[in-house]
Design goal:
21% helix; 33% strand
Length: 114
């Protein structure tokens, strides 16, 4: 499993070309890490990232081992990349590669687990 650390991930994602802003929000469910929303320069669509922690209600959703992370633009319940904006697509690929390079398993949606 890969180590999710919200502060480090947010700091790293800010360095990706095309990223305008990175915001951190509390977990959205019992098995989620913190949620990270990435705003892309010149685009209306954003990207959403969160980890899946298979512990029910982890003690620290900001710093936890995760079996996979969700990366989506939120435009479809199927998750993943659905935006037709090239700027969004470029940043999506960079973020996906960032996680893959750090041994994270990337999925389109947490729903794939259930």
């Amino acid at each position: 499993m890969a180590q999710w650390n919200t502060k480090q991930i947010a700091k790293d994602l800010k360095l990706i070309p095309g990223v305008e802003k990175v915001k951190i929000y509390p977990p959205g469910g019992d098995v989620d890490t913190d949620n990270i929303i990435v705003k892309i320069k010149g685009a209306d669509d954003s990207l959403f990232v969160s980890g899946f922690d298979d512990e029910d209600d982890p003690a620290n959703p900001s710093d936890v081992d995760v079996p996979f992370i969700e990366l989506t633009d939120g435009l479809s319940s199927d998750g993943g990349l659905n935006s037709t904006d090239k700027k969004v697509a470029r940043v999506y690929i960079e973020i996906r590669q960032y996680f893959l390079n750090r041994a994270f398993y990337v999925v389109n949606t947490h729903k794939a687990y259930f």
